[in-house]
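It is worth pausing here to work through a concrete case rather than discussing structure prediction in the abstract. The textbook approach is simple: state the sequence, then state the predicted structure, then interpret. We follow exactly that order.
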Amino acid sequence: MNRFKISDTPLDGLKLLERLVLRDPRGSLERMFCANDLGAILGVRSVVQINRTVTARRGVVRGMHFQRAPHAECKIVSCLRGEVFDVAVDLRAGSPTFLRWHAQILSAGNAATFFIPEGFAHGLQTLSDDCEMLYLHTAAYAPEFEGGVSPRDPRLAIDWPLPISFLSERDAAHPPLDSGFRGLDS
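Step two, the predicted structure:
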């Protein structure tokens, strides 16, 4: 039995995974990852790194991050505690949805997971205090191939639901895309 409902989003390759929660008098069980159930979207990729973040305050923005080839990565992102506005931006060269973004509310209560393919920048804004996120990555972190885009980039015009209450120095230093940016190669 597949424990995930996989839905398309308006951006090709970007998927919403709804975890099917099993409940009984003891509580609940939900599968966070299954290579067999997600094989159709994972293909030959494997999860090689798992990260967890905890963000204390509402309104914080983390992102917008990506890794360049040959260390480009897919991310499988879930919220374990709290609620976030999770955003993916299509940076793929030649994509018909180039520079478009799509967001999903991920929360501890909605059992939603975002599958973000290579070539997308990813970030989030916390909608509640004390948010905990789980990230599964198909490539190990490679700082020399890391990139970022300003979450305030006017070309992207991400409609953050709250005023940005905090942005790390690193994320604040990410530049907006210049007019010559043509996308990430795969």
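Step three, interpretation. Residues 41 and 115 are 9 Å apart (CA to CA). The domain at 4-172 is CATH 2.60.120.10 (Jelly Rolls).
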